[in-house]
Amino acid sequence: MKVCFDTNVVIDIAGKTDWFLDSYASYDVALLRKFDTCITAASTTDIVYVLHRRGMSAKESNEQLPSLFFMFDVLDVTESDCRRAYENSIADYEDALIAECCARNGVDIIVTRNKKDFKTSPVPALTPQEFLDAYKPENVEYDMVELR
Q1: Which structural domains are found in the chain, ordered by start?
Q2: Bridge pairing between strands 125-126 and 36-40
Q3: CA angle 111, 46, 17 (to 5 degrees)
Q4: Which among 58, 110, 50, 120 is positioned nearest to 85, based on CA atoms?
Q5: How much is the mean pLDDT over the chain?
Q6: Is 74 exposed, middle or buried (0-12, 13-18, 19+ CB in 10 A)?
Q7: Is 9 helix (H, G, I), strand (E, B) or coil?
Q8: Distance CA 75, CA 122 (A)
Q9: Cβ-based neighbours of 35, under 8 Å, separated by 6 or more
Q10: Which residues are within 8 A (CB) of 73 and not within 5 positions of it... i.e. 6 or more apart?
Q11: How far is it, in rounded angstroms, from Cα 123 to Cα 59?
């Protein structure tokens, strides 16, 4: 199975946001299940930009890229993806571009915190929690540990 992680879920992981646990756990479950994990090339610029705007220095946000390249396959975005996204009924162009890129690349599921934005996506979307509910092995549990 091929799973694309939306920009917001990757930002949760890299930026350790309030939604970190569910977002990271959904990524971890994808690895446990040996699913192919990916993001779109267009998402990489947004991820670096948002991490910088959320308080990382430009250097720190750029230094996230090698980890992302290790964690995810990066799907190319083509002119045809851009044209289809423009014509897509998804109101947010960024989400439409992810959806169209995923459809062209045979992605099975998009994991996103903004599921409603993907209502008309050609690829079904699940929230990180829905992904966990559907795919987490019964013997696996996740919980946050406070670091000192």
Answers
A1: 2-135 (3.40.50.1010)
A2: unpaired
A3: 60
A4: 120
A5: 93
A6: middle
A7: helix
A8: 16
A9: 1, 2, 3, 135
A10: 36, 37, 38, 39
A11: 34
d(Cα 51, Cα 14) in Å, to the nearest integer?
Answer: 8
**Residue of 9, 46, 51 lying closest to 27 (CA atoms):** 9
Length of the chain: 148
Are the beta carbons of 42 and 77 closer than 8 angstroms?
yes
Is the separation of the CB atoms in 117 and 6 below 8 Å?
no
d(CA 30, CA 134): 11
Token pair of 21 as six digits? 């646990």
Average pLDDT on 26-44 reads 97
Share of the chain above pLDDT 70, in %: 97
Q: If you search the block for the tokens 């290790």, which residue do you land on?
A: 70
For residue 73, give both structure tokens.
Answer: 């396959």
The whole model's pTM is what? 0.91
